[in-house]
C-alpha cells in the first residue's frame, strides 16, 4: 500500500491525525505543529517528532497545497511538495545553507520543505535587499516571485491570499 517507503507524513493542524483517534487532546488554535511518523495499518503514530510552524509558514502551506503533504506536483510539474518548491529555489536554499543537505525530492517532506523556505527567505528577504524592515508579506512575495518577488506586481494576488490566511489564524 505504501510502496517501499514506510515513512509517511501526518499533519496535526487544529484537528487530530488524519481523523484517526490518538492519545491526547487536539491542539489549541494557537498551537500548530507537524508530526512525522511511521504509518501502520492501525493508523497510530509511532515515535512522533514535532516541530513548530510560524503563522506565515502555516499560511504558505495552506495557500500552496491546502495543507497537504507528500510529493504534490504543481506549476506544470515544476514545483514539488507541500510548499510547492521549484528545483531552482531548492538549489538557492541549499547553497545558502549547505547544512540542509538532501536531494530535491526531499521537499515532499514538510519539515524539510520548511527548512528550504527558511533558508531561501533568510537569503533573499532581508533588510539590505528590501531597503526597509522585512515583513511576512515581503517573505511571502519573495517565496512566490523569486528573489525580487517583493517588487513584482504579479505577487500581489498571492500576498493577498497570505494576508487572508494570516488573519484566519490570528483569530
Short description:
The chain is an alpha+beta fold and 171 residues long.
Structure notes:
With 171 residues, the protein is of the alpha+beta class. The protein folds into 2 domains: 1-52, no CATH class; 54-170, Lysozyme (Orthogonal Bundle), CATH 1.10.530. Helix content is 38%, strand content 13%. It has helices at residues 55-65, 87-96, 110-124, 127-130, 136-145, 156-170; strands at residues 7-12, 33-38, 49-52, 73-74, 79-80, 85-86. The strands form 2 sheets. Strands 1-2-3 form a 3-stranded antiparallel sheet, with no helix packed on it. The protein has a 3-stranded antiparallel sheet with strand order 4-5-6. Strand 4 and strand 5 form a beta hairpin. Helix 2 (87-96) packs across helix 3 (110-124), helix 3 (110-124) packs across helix 5 and helix 5 packs across helix 6 (156-170). The longest helix is centred in the C-terminal third of the chain and has 15 residues, at 110-124.
Please report the distance between the alpha carbons of the first and last residues: 39 Å
What is the total tally of β strands?
Answer: 6
Low-pLDDT residue spans: 1-42
| Total tally of structural domains | 2
- Using only CA atoms, what is the Rg? 16 Å
- The share of residues in extended strands comes to 5-15%
Q: What is the helical fraction, as a range of percent?
A: 25-40%
Task: Calculate the mean pLDDT score and round it.
Answer: 79
Please trace the helix and strand order, writing H or E for each element: EEEHEEEHHHHH
Describe the main β-sheet briefly.
3 strands, antiparallel
Please identify the structural class as seen in this structure.
alpha+beta
Strand order of the largest sheet: 1-2-3
CATH architecture of the largest domain: Orthogonal Bundle
Shape: globular
Per the CATH scheme, the topology name of the largest domain is Lysozyme
CATH class of the largest domain: Mainly Alpha
Helices, by number, come to 6
